[in-house]
Design brief:
With 417 residues, this protein is of the alpha/beta class. It is 41% helix and 26% strand. The chain contains 16 helices and 17 strands. It has a six-stranded mixed beta sheet with strand order 2-1-3-8-7-6, with helices on both faces. Strands 14-13-15-16-17 form a five-stranded mixed beta sheet, sandwiched between helices. α2 runs parallel beside α7. The longest helix is centred in the last third of the chain and has 21 residues. The protein is elongated. The structure holds adenosine-5'-triphosphate.
Length: 417
């Protein structure tokens, strides 16, 4: 079964609203194992709308539209569809009565414009809209051998979403004789590697076909492998997802930091909590971003003690006891400075771990030996202090963000040792 989504409204085309309906509908259809092949947006223009219905129905078995069901003259969806189907518009009595009743409660009377919303293409099924006036309309076309379905939904998300979930979707599943399938999506999150390093290792997985597939997505400082598993029952879908997750974990080992809603900062938090350890941060070029990420996690006060933003050399020297000769001979961006900062913050805050970041966020300040993006990260623990360096790419903010995330990952790996 091929489905397409047609978003109707000039507002979408001119950028006044974000088309959240197509996203919502796609997600719901995916959950129900209905494949969406295309999204189209078209303005409130009867001719272009007719063409859009025609083209979509040539390709798809099910077309779901949103918008243009309102009472005003510029709401033309129903008329365009009726004209495309070559059907008459007929008054749908129950809709008329339901709307009249709603209006009466609010002390208003039916008028000519609202009456327009009670007309539907002959032979349609109509679903009342509990949050608004325009009903949803489901209609069938096509030949005996190849049935096609069209569902019209109102545009406002607060009307469309409940109407679709509670009424239209169950009806679609029934009319289209779609067996309810279980669908599980699981995101396996990998840190410390980039997409081009991950992809070759999962080549075979990326080629898999439904009901079990894997997609790869690059995110700032991490790579997400998204498993999609369909089966007739929940248990089967879960089994499929678990099998692939285990395979991925085996390939990437500790680079996998979590699944689904887990973040690097929550994964680090869990580890620190589990081990009963605390940490403190000393940040230069990230200006507090590492501390900010750590404190995003509720309950982080259990393990995050605090930090120092040691931006100026004087602060590195006076607050973190980095020796003047290190700052002069090795520089503020150096292995030695990072190490001294991490060790010092660990001692000063009486933490189990001290993490320090010093680097060149740019855009200026780079040299041949120390280019923009070069960042030293030190992790000082009870047993040892390790220093890492890496060149991060992008604009100043990207460098700061990936440096902070990289530090979280280095700390995580150190905690796993
Ligand atoms: P109404 O009965 O309110 O006129 P309608 O079915 O005619 O509803 P539209 O006129 O197309 O729908 O849109 C009404 C409002 O719904 C828009 O102003 C917008 O706020 C919202 N809306 C419409 N389409 C979308 C969409 N694709 N994504 C998000 N919001 C939308």
């Amino acid at each position: 079964l091929k489905a397409e989504i047609l978003s109707i409204g000039t507002e979408i085309l001119v950028g006044s609203i974000l088309n959240t309906n197509s996203r919502f509908l796609s997600a719901k259809l995916a959950e129900n194992a209905i494949d969406v092949y295309r999204h189209t947006s078209v303005g409130d223009n009867p001719e272009r709308l007719k063409t859009a219905f025609k083209e979509a129905l040539e390709r798809a078995d099910l077309v779901i539209s949103s918008g243009g069901l309102g009472p005003t003259e510029d709401d033309v969806t129903v008329r365009a569809l009726a004209s495309f189907l070559g059907r008459k518009l007929v008054l749908h009595r129950p809709t008329y009565e339901a709307i009249a009743k709603k209006l009466k409660v609010r002390g208003r009377r039916m008028n000519r414009l609202i009456t327009r919303q009670c007309f539907v293409p002959q032979g349609s099924r109509v679903l009342q809209n509990d949050r608004g006036t325009a009903p949803a309309i489901l209609t069938r076309t096509g030949t005996q051998g190849q049935r096609k379905w069209i569902l019209l939904l109102p545009g406002p998300p607060r009307e469309l979403e409940p109407l679709f979930t509670q009424k239209a979707l169950p009806l679609l599943l029934h009319c289209l004789k779609i067996k309810r399938q279980a669908f599980v999506i699981r995101s396996v999150r990998i840190a410390g590697l980039v997409e081009v390093e991950v992809a070759p290792k999962v080549k075979a997985l990326l080629k898999m076909k439904p009901p079990l597939t894997v997609g790869i997505y690059a995110k700032p400082g991490e790579v997400e492998l998204k498993i999609m598993s369909k089966a007739s029952g929940k248990a089967g879908a879960l089994r499929g997802a678990a099998r692939l997750e285990a395979l991925i974990r085996k390939k990437f080992g500790s680079a996998v930091y979590g699944v689904d809603g887990e973040t690097l900062q929550s994964a680090v938090g869990k580890l620190l909590k589990k081990r009963g350890r605390t940490i403190a941060a000393a940040e230069s070029c990230t200006g507090g971003r590492l501390s900010s990420l750590l404190t995003e996690v509720p309950g982080s006060s259990d393990y995050f003690l605090g930090g120092v933003i040691a931006y100026h050399n004087r602060v590195k020297r006076d607050l973190l006891s980095v020796r003047q000769d290190i700052l002069e001979k090795r520089g503020a961006v150096s292995e030695e400075t990072a190490k001294a900062m991490a060790k010092s913050v660990r001692v000063k805050f009486k933490a189990d771990f001290g993490v320090a970041i010093t680097g060149i966020a740019g855009p200026s300040g780079g040299t041949q030996r120390k280019p923009v993006g070069l960042v030293y990260t030190a992790v000082a623990g009870p047993k040892r202090t390790r220093v890492f360096h890496k060149i991060h790419f992008g604009a100043r903010r990207d460098i700061q963000e990936s440096a902070a995330r990289n530090a979280l990952n280095l700390l995580r790996l150190e905690l796993l040792k």
